[in-house]
Fold:
Amino acid sequence: MAVPLATGAAAPAATALAGLDWPALRAAVAGCTACSLCQSRTQTVFGVGNEAAHWLVIGEAPGEQEDLQGEPFVGPAGQLLDRMLAALGLSRAAEGPAAQRVYIANTLKCRPPRNRNPMPEEMALCEPFLQRQIELLHPRIILAMGRFAVQALLRSDEPVGKLRGRVHHYRGVPLIVTYHPAYLLRSPAEKARAWDDLCFAAGVAEGATD
Ligand code: URA
Structure:
């Protein structure tokens, strides 16, 4: 069931998405024209991974490669992310044990032109999709990577560096803040801190139950 939205239409209210299952939600995202990003995108980028994964990893917005391939984090930042996850025995593969699987999504489902920062109104319009993904996945741990994921989920403008190292919550789900992998590519000295964050998140995930 697609949720038809005309360009400039109001955001898909969370209530409009409330009953949607994964295929219906994916179709609603694919058909979304609520903001102008629909005009420049090649395709929407819904998310990838195991729909029962214990881990939910959230980034910012699709970049060029993601827009072309329809999958989040497939460029250089994604390759770094995959390597870090693999070091903890975690994978975005759809099949496999839920405890070793991650689901990866973004705060925005469409690429901003020239990879500019997401705008507040774009984030607000896209947010119900992410909320429904979180409801459907019911993860044991959320890893919020970078300031836009933090803004969307924690409503905080504090720098990532000030928010990491402790357990936050999003609607009762433990949430760990860490650096965005694109930032790590630019600032490799921070990789050790990001690794600490992942290990911290793994400990929290192990302690979490349904
Ligand atoms: N950066 C993101 O935040 N998300 C992607 O999917 C790719 C790069």
Residues 19-208 form a domain with the Uracil-DNA Glycosylase, subunit E fold (CATH 3.40.470.10). The two ends are 29 Å apart (CA to CA). The first strand starts at residue 48 and ends at 49. The first helix runs from residue 14 to 17.
